[in-house]
Amino acid sequence: MISTKKVIESLSKHGTCKQQISEDWNGNFELPDKLHDFYCSVGPINININGYGNPYHLPSLKELWNQQAGYRYNGITNERIPHWQDNWIVVASEGADPFIYNCDDSKIYYAQHGAGNWNVTELFASIEEMVVCLSVIGEVVNLADDDFLDDDFLINRQWVEKCSEKLNTFISSKEKVEFILDQLGWGEASISQ
Fold it and tell me: In the prediction, which pLDDT does 187 show?
């Protein structure tokens, strides 16, 4: 389990964290306890973290319900969108690709938007693990600056290795780190040799 202190320390490098109150949630169902606790203790305030391509966006609790538009419900008509499960809550996104909190097991799943039906992949054991991983990725992207991509817009291998090394400090499985990076576009096809 990753401590709240570690989560706040990691996330604060990319934006503001502030404890939020339950009344900030304006969804049409009760917020799950673990998400409630996350926002009351960590509280990202609409943080954008640099990534490979689009930034990762973590909404504030006040904006979390709006984050569901286009997934759970139509943002114009407010009609429920079929094929979106009731136990799913989008807690972050990369462009239109959602990071989904599963209310049944508190794990974070990832899906690519526009692939037809929602083919979700379990990516993180918890929202805390997701936040720290995305924060580490953002740190590496910021550190790399102009050297992150080569002339073909592929990630320079040294930055993938640096990211893997940093992620392995709190995720003990090298295979899981490789899987996470692969799912987020840092796999072999995206790496400069």
Answer: 82
